[in-house]
Write a structure and sequence with these properties.
The structure is a single chain. The protein is mainly α and about 90 residues long. The protein is built from 4 helices and no strands. It has one domain: EF-hand (Recoverin, domain 1, Orthogonal Bundle). Bound molecules: calcium ion. Calcium ion binds next to loops.
Amino acid sequence: MEAAIGELVSKFKLYAGKEGSSSTLSRDELHKLVTAELPNLVENTDVSAIDALMKSLDENNDGQLNFSEFWQLIGQVADKHGRLHQ
Ligand SMILES: [Ca+2]
């Protein structure tokens, strides 16, 4: 589990570092991350869907996702697709 958490953090930093602040994801960075890393778990990756996803995760409404805001997405996809409830 520790290795998996480390992987999540390093992927987050990889995408967060592409532009602007390297500790937060912009909408475009989120789009790149979801498209490349979660293609089967987040089915709809068109721009309007990413916008809606961004709004739903951006708790402090600063237009950026910090790690704890991003973490909710992992929880959501795990809940939806990870067979938690079998
Ligand atoms: Ca935010």
